[in-house]
Amino acid sequence: MSEAKDLLKRLCEVHNERYEVQNLLPGWKGVIQFVLDGEEFYVEFKGDGTVEFKEGTHPSPTVRIVASPEFWLKVMKGEEDPLMGAVTGKYKFEGAMAEAPKLAAYLRKAIAYL
After folding, report:
1. How confident is the model over 25-78, as pLDDT tens digits?
2. Alpha carbon of residue 25 to chain centroid
3. Which of 5, 11, 31, 70 is least surrounded by Cβ atoms within 10 Å, i.e. has the fewest?
4. pLDDT reported for residue 36
5. How far apart, in whole angstroms, are the C-alpha atoms of residue 68 and residue 32?
6. What total number of domains does the chain contain?
7. Are 45 and 28 in contact (CB under 8 A)?
8. In the predicted model, what is the mean pLDDT of residues 10-29?
9. Are 66 and 76 in contact (CB under 8 A)?
């Protein structure tokens, strides 16, 4: 398991434990599918404000992120900007493009709680 995947799991735990992290993306429902060097898992944001980390492939994710674990780890640590990374082709962001700025803002703020 990659360090990026471990960090995403931890972020889900912190999200569920801390109301202030849940409040960073209030009312958002959707699924972020990750494909990191072929390893597939997803994070489901639920209507009650919680998130769930699941292994495998979701049948209809809101967005799909395809990246190297090393690049996504840099995104998680704030060393790479996720929006610029998508624009410059460092990873693929597929799906609801209008959601990208919201998710990027959430990620930048939520990481501070880890």
Report:
1. 998 999 999 999 989 999 999 989 999 999 999 999 999 999 999 999 999 888
2. 12
3. 70
4. 96
5. 16
6. 1
7. yes
8. 94
9. no
Give the DSSP H or E segment for 15: helix 3-17
Beta bridge partners of 66: 35, 92
Helix, strand, coil tally for the chain in percent (to 5): 45, 25, 30
Question: How many CA atoms within 13 Å lie on the side-chain side of 41?
Answer: 18
Domain of 82 in residue numbering reads as 3-113
Residue 66 burial by CB count (10 A; 0-12/13-18/19+): exposed, middle or buried? middle
Residue 4 has φ and ψ, to the nearest 5°, of -65, -45
Q: Which residues of 6-31 are buried (b: 16+ CB within 10 A; e: fewer)?
A: ebbeebbebbbeeeebbebbeebebb
Residue 55: give its domain's CATH number: 3.30.1050.10
CB 80 within 8 A of CB 70: no
